[in-house]
Specification:
Length: 127
């Protein structure tokens, strides 16, 4: 719970791989979560799964709450629009109704909506 509160990020017990194909290199993009209380005496290290995979998973689901999580990732700098675009171009051919339970066009529509939300915010918008 301390991680959830400190990171202002919802904790979920699921893998994005259950819902979407994972972008290449996902293993190297895991983010270390700093928890001094865990490091004292336990040597426990906690990692947040690849934020890009998680972002794509939330976009695929497409609820307002999911979009807010991805927007927080963008605000924290955990993901960038530029990298999302590059990874999406590589992933779209793998997106099928069987894999993500929607067609690639539906996912692309949700993705574009999210990017519009990001750019519409005054502090992140494009002049």
């Amino acid at each position: 719970m301390a991680v959830q509160t400190r990171g202002d990020v919802q904790l979920l017990e699921e893998s994005p791989a259950d819902v979407i194909p994972l972008p290449s290199g996902f293993e190297q993009r895991a983010r270390s979560v700093e928890m001094p209380e865990a490091n004292r005496g336990f040597g426990l290290r906690l990692f947040h799964f690849d934020p890009y995979s998680v972002a794509f998973r939330f976009i695929a689901r497409g609820d307002e709450q999911d979009y807010r999580v991805v927007l927080r990732y963008l605000e924290h700098g955990w993901v960038t629009v530029e990298e999302l675009n590059v990874m999406l171009d590589a992933l779209l051919p793998e997106f099928t109704v069987e894999v993500i339970q929607q067609d690639a066009q539906e996912f692309r529509r949700k993705y574009k909506g999210l990017i519009q939300m990001w750019r519409a915010s005054p502090e992140h918008g494009i002049p």
